[in-house]
Amino acid sequence: MTDDGERGTPGKGLVQGLAVTLKTMTRRSTTRQYPDVEPELPPRSRGVIALLEENCTVCMLCARECPDWCIYIDSHKEEVIVPGAARARQRNVLDRFDIDFALCMYCGICIEVCPFDALHWTPEFEYAETDVLDLLHDKNRLGEWMRTVPPPPAHDVLGEPSKEEASATRKASGPGAAKQARANVRRPPSTTAERPPRAEQKPGEPAVDAPQAPPGIDSETEPPEPEK
Amino acid sequence: MPVWLELVIRVVAVVVGFLVLPLLVGQAEHKVMAHMQGRLGPMYAGAYHGWAQLVADGVKFVQKEDITPRDADRGVFRLAPIVALFPYLLILLAIPLGPGGLVAQPLDIGLFFVLAVLGVGVLAVLMSAWASGNKYSLLGGLRGAAQLLGYELPLVLAAASVAMAAGTLSLPGIVEAWKPWWLLWQAPAAIIFFVAGLAEIRRPPFDMPIADSELVFGYLTEYTGLRFAFFLLAEYVGIIVIAALTTVLFLGGWHGPFAAHLGWLWTLVKIFALSFVIIWFRVAYPRLREDQLQRLCWLVLVPVALAQLILTAAVKLAM
Fold first, then answer.
1. Å from A49 to nearest chain B CA?
2. Residue A25 falls within a domain, yes or no?
3. What is the percentage of chain B residues whose pLDDT exceeds 90?
């Protein structure tokens, strides 16, 4: 009526309001009928964490990096006698690997930090429990989630070859061809020799780049080479 | 057919309409409002698109505890829902559905009767507000009283205009006399009657007496269970009554193709179209402030209604 504001044609706003609601009514509603219809989750949704037990070496990185300490790991050492070797080797055997999803905050640090891809995100999210104690998933239950892990996204064809590929070609072409294989992945010549190639370093600017990276980054993004 | 049998049939028909039509409007409100907001609305009750949602609501309301506050004026508190509901039943008696006496009770002063009974609604609001013994209820009731008394005036003036044009106070008589060009001639009166009617039944954007963001739930704050359900039913019957009155007075009731046989259908179609508009307004418009509400009534609706009366009289004299 006499309210202030933009003064256009009288009643224009009233008609516009009616038009908006009528237009919305003719469109399909955005409601997802979730329990009846499965939701379409985006790829790489963070539902639950799956454990591939064979890959775990009990390095404890995940348990140490977990911000709220919800990963519990127990293990013992076993002797493995390798025929022909001078002495028996030792191997860690996983006894217990529990994640308490009542505490987990789904930051994904454990998955990022795992050097051997033993932990994976899966989009499954329907594991609510009536008892909070049941949210502690043991290693069998975590292993069952592995079936629901989606395949990794395809490698970018224009990107650099992965570290695994590069080292595989290097090894395949023998010790003599090592230098040439390294040149293929455009490795900066001046950095320390044992480090695997880094994607973001260009050959021209290795020394400028190095101090900018925080000291902790290297150990996290580049997994230590497995012995042997 | 004996008189008593005819009477029983007419009353039963009105009661059935009184119980069924509000359910249809209520369900339509659920679904229309949901889709206008990009939602689905009720989907589970009754298995097919939630058609039985209001039945389920009714069952729920019956099961709720019937609480009367300690400080309430018990008799008045319990009587108020009936007073809110009963006038609408009486109004439905006088509304003509089709030609040839298809009306429960033809009254020569039908329009006068209908407007008088519609005014009883104020009484229900004041009764429930005062008897609740709750300050929010009282505030809501006072707002309601101010609103209903104010909007009664343009409502009656607009109705008087069409009565003057038709030369009768009988509702079937008005529909008989109606001509299509009245749509233009009586257009301001029709809009005023519809808007004032919305305010009379306290529908958004005129729901100041309830104003759930300010007054909890206004004069309905203390009501629970079946008594609350009665108030809710009264609101939906109110939609039907206002839509039916606007149809009969301004949209030519049963007039339309094949009116002799399908007149009742035309009336119903028009009533439901207007009910849709009432629901549509609720979704589209925010609630008016109290001063805006009074300003709209006294500075816009009443002067325009008076001008319409003069126009109607002038055209009537010229013809």
1. 33
2. no
3. 9
